[in-house]
Design brief:
The chain has 509 residues and is an alpha/beta fold. Among the domains are: 255 residues, Vaccinia Virus protein VP39 (Rossmann fold), CATH 3.40.50; 84 residues, no CATH class. It is 34% helix and 16% strand. The protein is built from 16 helices and 15 strands. The protein has a 7-stranded mixed sheet, sandwiched between helices. It is globular, with a radius of gyration of 23 Å. Arginine methyltransferase involved in the assembly or stability of mitochondrial NADH:ubiquinone oxidoreductase complex (complex I). Keywords: Methyltransferase, Mitochondrion, Transferase. InterPro entries: NDUFAF7 (IPR003788), NDUFAF7_sf (IPR038375), SAM-dependent_MTases_sf (IPR029063). It catalyses: L-arginyl-[protein] + 2 S-adenosyl-L-methionine = N(omega),N(omega)'-dimethyl-L-arginyl-[protein] + 2 S-adenosyl-L-homocysteine + 2 H(+). One of its GO terms (biological process) is methylation.
C-alpha cells in the first residue's frame, strides 16, 4: 500500500528550492530512536501517485510524476534516450540546476547527487549535531541513562534550530566524534602519537591530513591531546583538513576563529577546500591520513551478471526532459569498472579471500534462476566501490608515505536490494523516510554504502603496496581510549558497545 506520508514528503521536496532543503542526514534521528544508533534502521516505502499531471515533452501516458523510481525501463523511448549525451559528475559540477536529457554511469549520478557544489546533498545547509558539554559518563547510572540524556540534548538542539527557522526537511548528522567528544578523538590521537614516536620522531614533523572533518571537533580533540600530553610532539605537529564542502570548510574556519585561537592551535591548522580527487600536490613526507565515516558516501557502480554466460553489465542512469530517472544496464564496461573487477580478483586471490558475488552457487541453479518467470536473464545488482579504489590510487600516487586510519560501517540494515547495496534515506518532520532505490531526486537523499573490509583491505594493499589490519570499533577503542572516562556506574561502556557495525582499518607498514 502506498504511504500518504511518503507522498506528502515528495510533494514537499518538489515544492521547495534546493537551497531550502539540503542538509546532512541523521544516522538515525535520536529523538525518534528506541535504541542506541548501532545500526541503520528503516522500513520500506513507496510513493503514492496522485492525479496525473499534464504531459510534458518526452512523456508518455504510461508515466507518472510520482511513480516509484524502480519502475521498468521504457523501451519504447530507447531511441530518444540514445540521443542524449553521456556526462560525468565532473562535467555537471558547474551546473546550477539538476541535469535533464542526459545519460551517465550510476557512480556519476551518485557523485553528482551527493557532491554537486550547487544542489548536492553535502553542499547546502549542513547541520551536524553537537551535544555541547562532554557527557560525564562516570556519573551516569547506565548506558540507558546516557541514551536518554543524549535524546534530550538532541531534541533541545533541534528545537533551538526550529525556533530560529522551522524546517520540516532539516537533516541532522551525528558522529561518534561528537557523541563521545573528546574521548573518541583522544583515542585516535593516542594511536597517532604512539606510532609517530615509534617510527618518525624526531626526524620528521607530525603531519596529519583529515578528510571530511565535519565541525572540526576531531581536529580540536587531537590537537588538545597532543599539546597537553606531548608538548615536544605538539611543536612538530601540522594539521591539514581536506574538505569538499564549501559550507563545512567555512564552518571549520569559523571554529578556528573561535575555538582554535582560544586554544592556541590556529597556526597548526590549514583548511583546504577541495575534493581529494582533485588533489595535485605530491606529499613525500611521512603523514597520517584520517578517513573516518568517509568511505560510506563514496560513489559506487552497479553491476549485474548474465546467469548463463556470467558476463557483467554496468548500470547507467537516464534523466528525461522532466527529470524522471530510469536505469539500464550495458554490456560495455567503462575502464574504471573493469579495473576494479581485475584488481579485486587479483587481490582477493592473493590473500585467499572469498567475496560475495551474485553468481555464487552452482551453475545449474543459476541456469534455473534465468528460467524463472519475471526474473530475466540478469542477476540482482552488485554495488562495487570504484570511487574508493580511486581514493587508494590517490594515496599511492600523491601520499606514498601515508599511514591510513579509516573507520566505517561494515554492515547497514534494511539496505536496497543487492550485494553491498546502500541505504537511501531522507528525513522529514524529524523522522527517517527510506526509499528502495538510489535513483532519487538529486541532493535530497543520503546514499550510504557498507564497506566490505575483507575485500577492501587486500585491495588497498594491492594498490598502495602497504599492509593494513582491520579491527572492530570496540576493539580499537579498548586498545587506545581511556575507557574509564566513558564507563557508567554499572560498568557499561557506550564507547565500546555502540557502533558495533563499524570497523577500523589502519596501515601497519
Amino acid at each position: 500500500m502506498d504511504s500518504p506520508a511518503v507522498a506528502q514528503l515528495f510533494r514537499q521536496l518538489f515544492s521547495h528550492r534546493a537551497s531550502q532543503c539540503l542538509v546532512r542526514g541523521a544516522r538515525p534521528a535520536l529523538a525518534q530512536a528506541a535504541r542506541p544508533p548501532q545500526t541503520q534502521h528503516r522500513g520500506r516505502a513507496t510513493t503514492a501517485a496522485p492525479r496525473a499531471p499534464r504531459l510534458g515533452e518526452g512523456e508518455t501516458k504510461r508515466e507518472s510524476r510520482w511513480q516509484p523510481r524502480r519502475n521498468a525501463f521504457p523501451h519504447e523511448r530507447t531511441e530518444e534516450f540514445e540521443r542524449y549525451p553521456m556526462v560525468t559528475a565532473d562535467i555537471l559540477r558547474s551546473r546550477r540546476e539538476r541535469p535533464r536529457r542526459v545519460r551517465m554511469l550510476l557512480r556519476d549520478f551518485i557523485e553528482d547527487s551527493l557532491y554537486n557544489p550547487h544542489y548536492g546533498y553535502f553542499s547546502k545547509q549542513v547541520v551536524i549535531f553537537s551535544p555541547g558539554e562532554p557527557f560525564d559518563f562516570p556519573t551516569l547510572p547506565s548506558e540507558h541513562a546516557f541514551f536518554q540524556s543524549l535524546r534530550h540534548r538532541y531534541t533541545a538542539f533541534e528545537d533551538a534550530l526550529d525556533y530560529q527557522e522551522p524546517n520540516d526537511l532539516r537533516q541532522l548528522w551525528h558522529t561518534p566524534t561528537e557523541l563521545f567528544s573528546p574521548y573518541y578523538g583522544e583515542a585516535i590521537a593516542s594511536f597517532i602519537v604512539h606510532d609517530y614516536k615509534l617510527r618518525n620522531y624526531p626526524y620528521h614533523d607530525l603531519i596529519i591530513y583529515e578528510m571530511g572533518a565535519g565541525n572540526g571537533t576531531m581536529m580540536l580533540n587531537i590537537l588538545d591531546y597532543i599539546r597537553d600530553r606531548y608538548p615536544e610532539v605538539y611543536e612538530r605537529t601540522r594539521y591539514r583538513i581536506i574538505e569538499i564542502s564549501s559550507q563545512l570548510a567555512d564552518l571549520q574556519q569559523q571554529g578556528l576563529g573561535h575555538s582554535a585561537y582560544a586554544r592556541g592551535h590556529a597556526d597548526k591548522v590549514e583548511i583546504i577546500n577541495k575534493s581529494i580527487f582533485d588533489w595535485d600536490q605530491y606529499v613525500s613526507s611521512p603523514c597520517f591520513f584520517l578517513a573516518l565515516e568517509v568511505f560510506d558516501n563514496f560513489a559506487h557502480d552497479a553491476l549485474k551478471y548474465d546467469y548463463q554466460t556470467g558476463a557483467p553489465y554496468q548500470s547507467h542512469v537516464v534523466v528525461d526532459p522532466r527529470g524522471e530517472l530510469f536505469e539500464y544496464y550495458s554490456r560495455t564496461l567503462d575502464p574504471v569498472a573493469k579495473d576494479f573487477i581485475e584488481r579485486r580478483e587479483a587481490a582477493c586471490k592473493d590473500q585467499g579471500v572469498d567475496f560475495p558475488h551474485p553468481l555464487s552457487g552452482s551453475r545449474f541453479m543459476n541456469s534455473l534462476r534465468a528460467l524463472l518467470p519475471f526474473r530475466g536473464s540478469l542477476t540482482t545488482p552488485e554495488y562495487i566501490p570504484t570511487r574508493l579504489m580511486q581514493f587508494f590510487y590517490m594515496l599511492y600516487q600523491k601520499f606514498p608515505n601515508h599511514r591510513l586510519i579509516s573507520s566505517d560501517f561494515h554492515q547497514l540494515s534494511d539496505a536496497v536490494e543487492g550485494i553491498n547495496a546502500p541505504v537511501v534515506q531522507t528525513r522529514y518532520k524529524r523522522q527517517m523516510i527510506p526509499v528502495s532505490t538510489p535513483l532519487v531526486h538529486q541532493g535530497y537523499f543520503d546514499i550510504l554504502f557498507p564497506t566490505d573490509f575483507d575485500v577492501i583491505q587486500p585491495l588497498y594493499s594491492g594498490i598502495t603496496g602497504r599492509y593494513a589490519k582491520t579491527s572492530s570499533h570496540g576493539a580499537f577503542m579498548s586498545g587506545w581510549a581511556d575507557i574509564e572516562e566513558t564507563q557508567t556506574q554499572n560498568g557499561e561502556n557506550p564507547l565500546l558497545s555502540w557502533y558495533k557495525n563499524a570497523s577500523v582499518m589502519i596501515t601497519t607498514h
